[in-house]
Design brief:
The chain is an alpha/beta fold. The protein has one domain: Metallo-dependent phosphatases (Purple Acid Phosphatase, chain A, domain 2, 4-Layer Sandwich), CATH 3.60.21.10. 24% of the residues lie in helices and 25% in strands. The protein has helices at 18-41, 93-102, 122-130, 151-160, 191-202, 220-226, and strands at 2-4, 10-13, 56-63, 75-79, 107-111, 138-141, 164-165, 169-175, 178-184, 210-214, 231-234, 243-245, 254-255, 266-270, 273-277, 294-301. The strands form 4 sheets. It has a 6-stranded mixed beta sheet. Strands 8-9-10-11-15-14 form a 6-stranded mixed beta sheet. Strands 1-2 form a two-stranded antiparallel sheet. Strand 14 (266-270) and strand 15 (273-277) form a beta hairpin. Helix 5 runs parallel beside helix 6. The protein is globular, with a radius of gyration of 18 Å. The termini are far apart.
């Protein structure tokens, strides 16, 4: 069974579907071995017991060639991959929210994986996300972990709380008489589905002065850049978490994410389009080497 939300975005398989059950069984095995098992084997040392001291707050400037002068200096706080569960617990959420709000950005974007494995902490997640605030709004998309338990339940909770969850749709904003369109695609891992979702979403942005796309999977950038999206924000890779090299950019980081992703961490560019991949503020695997969890404040500029 496939569900549909109010704005026409397609949800993943029902929790009662056989394919979904197999995915959850595989996720349960990974969780038992690589999350819970690793913490226990370390005697608890790999857990995250210090809320507020286990992530970095980074600042990046992104040059967008098509950016109007009126939008130069626009700031975006980018959060991704909270993975609230056994490693990032509800006790961590107030510190994450406080750090994000303290950056006083014009806009906040959160690119998925709010849940780690179970929806048991969903009420705490929703309450925390309601505390995020920015003058131009706070916008959300879902990630793959948000569907491990019950994706429909996660989406319904966001929508019921009045949060700006984007599911293959867009929101138009005005800033200094310029039009900003923020679009977001629902989670998909197949490249053909990602491309279809990007196309359907970008088709709703024809007159924007700044096109911003939120997509949990960074491979959405391939379709987004072909359709003139100025900036794509993604997560999903956790920056690799375990790195041999911690340089950023096209020829930078070498780590676990390089085995499955073209874009693993930091800033990428192709023509006039840019992609920023967050290392995430949370983790599903309790080990980070040369790749700290992060909240990032992005400042948009044009030097052309």
């Amino acid at each position: 069974m496939i569900g549909f939300d109010a704005v026409g975005g397609v949800f993943q398989l029902s929790p009662h579907d056989k394919k979904h059950r197999r995915k959850r069984q595989r996720a349960a095995f990974r969780h038992a071995v690589f999350t819970r098992g690793a913490v226990r084997l370390s005697g608890g040392r790999l857990a995250r017991p210090r809320p507020g001291k286990d992530f970095a707050v980074n600042h990046r400037v992104i040059d967008l060639p098509r950016l109007p002068d009126e939008l130069c200096g626009l700031t975006i706080t980018h959060l991704s991959d909270l993975h609230v569960g056994e490693l990032v617990t509800p006790a961590h959420l107030p510190y994450i929210v406080e750090a994000a709000n303290a950056l006083e950005s014009d806009l906040i974007a959160v690119t998925g994986d709010f849940v780690d494995f179970s929806n048991v902490y969903l009420p705490a997640i929703i309450e925390a996300m309601k505390q995020l605030a920015a003058p131009l709004g706070v916008y959300f998309v879902l990630g793959n972990h948000d569907f491990l338990d019950n994706g429909q339940q996660v989406a319904d909770a966001f929508l019921k709380a009045g949060l700006n969850l984007l599911l293959n749709n867009t929101v138009d904003l005005e800033h200094y008489e310029k039009r900003i369109t923020v679009g977001g695609i629902n989670w998909a891992d197949k490249h053909t589905q990602i491309a279809r979702d990007v196309r359907a979403t970008v088709n709703q942005m024809p007159k924007a002065d700044l096109r911003l796309l939120l997509a949990h999977h960074p491979h959405a950038f391939d379709a987004a850049r072909r359709r003139g999206v100025d900036l794509t924000l993604s997560g999903h890779t956790h920056g690799g978490q375990v790195l041999l090299s911690n340089k950023r950019g096209k020829k930078g980081s070498i780590g676990l994410a390089n085995f499955g992703f073209r874009y693993t961490r930091g800033l990428y560019q192709h023509g006039d389009s840019r992609l920023f991949v967050s290392s995430g503020v949370g983790s599903w695997f309790p080990l980070r080497i040369r790749c700290p969890a992060e909240i990032t404040r992005l400042e948009l500029q044009s030097r052309y």
